[in-house]
Design brief:
This protein is α/β, with parallel strands linked by helices and 161 residues long. It has two helices and eight strands; from the N terminus they run αββββββββα. Helices cover 30% and strands 32% of the residues. It is elongated, with a radius of gyration of 28 Å. The termini are far apart.
């Protein structure tokens, strides 16, 4: 009699345990993940023609498991890629890098167990004086020359008094 009651209970309990136990597991990565977003400037204007690299970085190894490229964003500044099942797991890092002219920036987020994730990137214009090693060294030299001119002027002025 006890066995007759236990068998139906086990038959119902095993599928329930499998469904409940697998909700947060990495097995859900068999589903595709759509990653989309906008590339915009510091004023919120969408950037047409930006190059976008979308990478999935494995949570445990830190290695890039899959990379997608968008050669040129449309006038809307939007991009969209789909990571297929097996190319990602919840907890991995989504890294989006956008380049437009001399501007480049990136944004990252953790991959969640959802169908669509948004990752926007804002590009800030580089200050031309500090945009390269040449620009930085030129700025330092210019500031040094100005300081020398001011010091020489003050010394000559003190000597004349």
């Amino acid at each position: 009699m006890l066995i007759a009651i236990a068998i139906p209970f086990l038959v119902l309990a095993i599928p329930f345990a499998v469904m409940v136990g697998s909700q947060d597991s990495a097995a859900n990565s068999i589903w595709p993940l759509i990653v989309r977003g906008y590339i915009e400037d510091s004023e919120g204007n969408k950037i047409e023609g930006a190059n976008v690299t979308i990478e999935m970085v494995n949570e445990t190894s830190g290695l890039v498991t899959k990379t997608y490229y968008v050669d040129s964003t449309p006038a809307s500044g939007a991009y969209l890629v789909t990571f297929n099942g097996g190319e990602w797991d919840p907890g991995d890092t989504i890294r989006v890098t956008a380049t437009f002219g001399f501007m480049q920036d990136e944004n990252t987020t953790i991959a969640l167990n959802v169908a669509v994730q948004w990752v926007n990137v804002t590009l800030y214009p580089a200050i031309p004086e500090f945009g390269s090693i040449f620009g930085v060294s030129t700025s330092i030299i210019t500031i040094g020359l100005i300081a020398m001119v001011v010091a020489t002027y003050r010394k000559k002025r003190q000597d004349s008094l």
